[in-house]
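Q: Got a minute? One more chain.
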Amino acid sequence: MTIQDSATQSSAIAVSSVTRTGTVLAALGVLSFSFSLPATVWALDGFGPWSATGVRGVLAGLLAAACLFGARVPVPGRQHWPGLLTVAAGCAIGFPLLSTLALQTSTTAHSAVVIGMLPLATAAASAALTGRRPSRAFWTAAGAGALAVAAFTLQQNHGLPTLGDAYLFGALLVCAAGYAQGGRLASHMPGWQVIAWGVVAALPVSALVTAFALPAEPVQLTGKAVVGMAYIAAVSQFGGFVMWYRGMAVIGVPKASQIQLAQPLITLVWSVLLLGEELSPLTPVAALIVLGCIAVTQRVRS
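A: Always. Here it is, folded:
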């Protein structure tokens, strides 16, 4: 073996190791997000939908501000703020509010349909944003996975489109934009700083919503409400994004987004174990289809 061959092999091994690390980080982000809807249901045990959205945003913003201050992170350059404001509007305000409103009329399992379509929407938003076009095989696998998850979650509920579905569709659009912009920014700054500045930028809106909502919506600090609120503030709106955006930066937004195809199925498991909802016998079949689609999207060139 020549020195050049050895160097090439070492470089390939290093790239493979980095890719695995990025995939693991993205998967951990998906796992943390999978509990967001059940945790929101718990939070709604003691908070109204508007106060739950405002309080989680305030708590996440204060936590992020403390981390930024403690690490003495400088304010991002002007060129990054349009993307950060998109992250704030989509991931820190729009998706939390719209998904919480949807849970007023939809079950956790039904609401998971938005997660089933989110990976495809995120990949499309990223392609529009960066101009990079994944391969036809990627789009075929991503579309098949999205359709499988959507069909499965809708079959679970035998439901027709409702007002809750309108909220979920809006949540899908704004979150896909926030994911795509956040993944792009994570290539220029650490992922935790992307979401930290995003939730800090959303802090004035979150504080205003909280100030108006708390007097109008009675609050009962039950055990479930406190645990649910703590989770959606610290993990769903901040900690989970640290791993998620870092994974996106390493393996790319399109591939990372497709790992999220597994999220609705994991959410369904949580809904059965923690919320007492029933699990369909078709779950294993849907899981195998989704895992196959994820495998394809991770192997094809994007």
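A: The chain has one domain: 25-299.
Q: Perfect, thanks.
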